[in-house]
């Protein structure tokens, strides 16, 4: 299974991301209940990703992107990427193995605005912040999750975490719940970038 990299994108200016993404609405049904679902269409069909060398195949009336793995790696920055939520102020999604930094550049160039993306691997192997300017140029700052574990050990006064370490329990009457401390440290790091 691929490591999921969750990300969220914000703008430095007041923008409305819902105007930049094509969405689709359909009805889902389960047992006797049905409800409407609205979600972003595939990235390769989004306006800011158009004309990036997509080649389409057609079979039985359905079309699909040829060489999608290579196209996604080159133009998105990950072998696949899902946009989960789009609202006026942010975009949230997840990708496989790496953050979608190239996609961020295409979106910024399309919107003609500077964008920022915070991202983290699901196991916090890496944590980072990426930026894209209005011309689509990107940069990023990344850190290793082990750095935060070392800081936690120092805070707890131990050399390393024991094999039976309890992340969600208060550590030896220290007032520190390790997982909460780690989450706060990561989010503070995001804020400092």
Report the sheet with the most strands, covering strand number, pairing sense and barrel closure. Answer: 6 strands, antiparallel
Number of helices: 4
Distance between the termini: 30 Å
Structural class category: alpha+beta
The helical percent reads 10-25%
Report the principal-axis shape: globular
Average pLDDT works out at 93
What does it look like?
The relative contact order is 0.15. Helices cover 24% and strands 34% of the residues. Strand 2 (23-30) and strand 3 form a beta hairpin. The protein is built from four helices and ten strands, in the order E-E-E-E-E-H-E-E-H-E-E-E-H-H. It has 193 residues and is an alpha+beta fold. It has a six-stranded antiparallel β-sheet with strand order 6-7-1-8-9-10. It has a two-stranded antiparallel sheet with strand order 2-3.
Q: In brief, what are we looking at here?
A:
The protein is an alpha+beta fold and 193 residues long. The chain has four helices and ten strands; from the N terminus they run E-E-E-E-E-H-E-E-H-E-E-E-H-H. The strands form three sheets. Strands 6-7-1-8-9-10 form a six-stranded antiparallel sheet.
């Amino acid at each position: 299974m691929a490591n999921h990299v969750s990300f969220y994108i914000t703008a430095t200016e007041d923008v409305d991301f819902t105007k930049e993404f094509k969405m689709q609405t359909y009805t889902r049904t389960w047992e006797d209940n049905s409800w409407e679902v609205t979600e972003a269409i595939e990235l390769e069909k989004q306006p800011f990703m158009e004309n990036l060398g997509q080649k389409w195949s057609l079979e039985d009336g359905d079309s699909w992107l040829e060489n999608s793995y290579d196209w996604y790696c080159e133009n998105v920055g990950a072998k696949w990427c899902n946009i989960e939520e789009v609202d006026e102020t942010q975009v949230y999604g997840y990708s496989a193995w790496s953050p979608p930094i190239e996609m961020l550049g295409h979106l910024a160039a399309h919107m003609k605005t500077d964008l920022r993306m915070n991202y983290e691997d699901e196991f916090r192997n890496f944590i980072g912040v990426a930026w894209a300017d209005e011309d689509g140029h990107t940069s990023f700052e990344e850190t290793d999750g082990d750095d935060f574990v070392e800081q936690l050990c120092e805070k707890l006064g131990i050399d390393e975490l024991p094999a039976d370490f309890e992340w969600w329990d208060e550590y030896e009457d220290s007032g520190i719940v390790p997982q909460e401390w780690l989450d706060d440290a990561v989010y503070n790091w995001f804020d400092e970038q």
